Automatic annotation (TrEMBL):
Compositionally biased region (Acidic residues): 203-230
Domain (Ribosomal protein L9): residue spans on this chain: 13-40
Name this protein carries in UniProt: Large ribosomal subunit protein bL9
Natural source organism: Parasphingopyxis lamellibrachiae
Keywords: Coiled coil, Ribonucleoprotein, Ribosomal protein, RNA-binding, rRNA-binding
GO CC terms in record: ribonucleoprotein complex; ribosome
Pfam families: Ribosomal_L9_C (PF03948), Ribosomal_L9_N (PF01281)
Coiled coil: 37-64
InterPro entries in the cross-refs: Ribosomal_bL9, Ribosomal_bL9/RNase_H1_N, Ribosomal_bL9_bac/chp, Ribosomal_bL9_C, Ribosomal_bL9_C_sf, Ribosomal_bL9_N, Ribosomal_bL9_N_sf
One GO term (biological process): translation
Length: 230
């Protein structure tokens, strides 16, 4: 479908350009959002008659967007969320979450202006684009952390995820070895929690003598049994 752009649209062109787009894109997005007109003879005449006014209004909207963009560009919002030890969120950060935090800072943006290219599903500092106008963008930082303390570390440039992995690697756990020799270390729990098996008590001289007598008696009984059998 051939259309006349009423404002700049991505890589298609700028105001007044006549371009060809897919029918679905035109019907579902450009035309209902008043970003374009069908490029027929009647609409071309209407556009040319109102071109100066349309360009003036576009400049005014762009100026307002530039002012707003200067206020929020580079801004950081903080979101505290539950996450696993690997940094994966139990859920994800939504566009609505971002809008609410910006409103708390006195900045109002619409749902359509928040360009979340992929869901935020892990802790860390993520950049999100705010499209304030067809020609004006701003970028904010979304600091997602499990606690205010971790958020502060991330704001200072500390990689909290890397610290989590390092802690997991250092805090290893070993299985208790029931066959460990006396004096060997068998670790239980964290690597600093060592348990040393207690060696079995040594037999006393009296006990050893009693054991020898019992062994001699058993041998004599077996020998007497063999003689009777013969």
């Amino acid at each position: 479908m051939d259309i006349i752009l009423l404002e700049r649209v991505g890589n298609l062109g700028t105001i007044g350009d006549v371009v060809t787009v897919k029918d679905g894109f035109a019907r579902n997005f450009l035309l209902p959002n008043k970003k374009a007109l069908r490029a027929n003879k009647a609409n071309k005449a209407i556009f040319e008659a109102n071109r100066e006014q349309l360009e003036k209004e576009n400049e005014e909207r762009r100026a307002v967007a530039e002012t707003e963009g200067a206020k929020i560009d580079g801004m950081t919002i903080e979101l505290i969320r539950q996450a696993s030890n690997t940094g994966q969120l139990y859920g994800s950060v939504s566009v609505r979450d971002i809008i609410v935090e910006l409103e708390a800072k006195g900045e109002a943006v619409s749902k359509k202006q928040v360009v979340l290219e992929r869901p935020i599903k892990a802790v860390g500092v993520h950049e999100v684009r705010i499209a304030l106008h067809a020609e004006v963008d701003a970028t904010i930082k979304v600091n997602v952390a499990r606690s205010p303390e971790e958020a502060e570390l991330q704001a200072q440039g500390v990689d909290v995820l890397e610290q989590m992995f390092e802690k997991d690697e250092q805090g290893f756990t070993e299985e208790f070895d029931p066959n460990a020799e006396p004096g060997e270390i068998a670790a239980v729990g964290e690597e600093e929690d060592f348990v040393e098996p207690v060696p079995a008590p040594e037999a006393s001289d009296d006990t050893a003598a009693e054991d020898a007598d019992e062994a001699d008696a058993e041998a004599a009984a077996e020998e007497d049994g063999d003689e009777k059998s013969a």
